[in-house]
Amino acid sequence: MLFRRRKPDGLLERVRTYLWPRRSFSRSLQYFSKRILRLKATPHAVAAGVAAGVFASFFPVGFHFAIAAIVCWLIAGNLVAAALGAVFFGNPLTFPLLWGASWETGKLILHERLPKHGPPAQLGDMMHTLSFAKLWHPVLEPMLIGAVPLGLVFGLLFYGITRWGMNAFREQRRKRLAERARRSSHPTGSIGSAAR
Prior knowledge:
Number of strands: 0
Mean pLDDT: 77
Order of helices and strands: HHHHHHHHH
Radius of gyration: 24 Å
Helix content: over 70%
């Protein structure tokens, strides 16, 4: 490879770069938005794909890529946009917030409250043994139920933003190409003056 590093990054450096970009978050956001805007699909397909990825990010790990693919298929979204939306919106920095919000929303919907002193004492033990039957009622059920309304709200929000951005980007590109075509069809400068 032409631009490969002489000394490849180690595992810790790759994890650090994934959590905290080398340049800045704004540059990463610009890169992500360019990747989305340049996808060759209809604005609806791209926006629906991003919305599916955002919707699925509220679900626990292991479910969200499968959910993004299913929702993407149901609403005729772009699968690449869904993967980009899921990776951008659901990442190690945002997962604690998304899952905490899903859990709290699920508890409100189910009318359940934790004791005043915090989570049950056996929750850490359940997480350690990863017993699905023990985790279902206190953790997974509220998370899955709470993920649906939050995912719908944020998915619709990102659908609107992405669709607006796609339309604006394509309109700007169409104007640029029309201007370039107009300039190339009406040559000016030395050729025009020599003809006179």
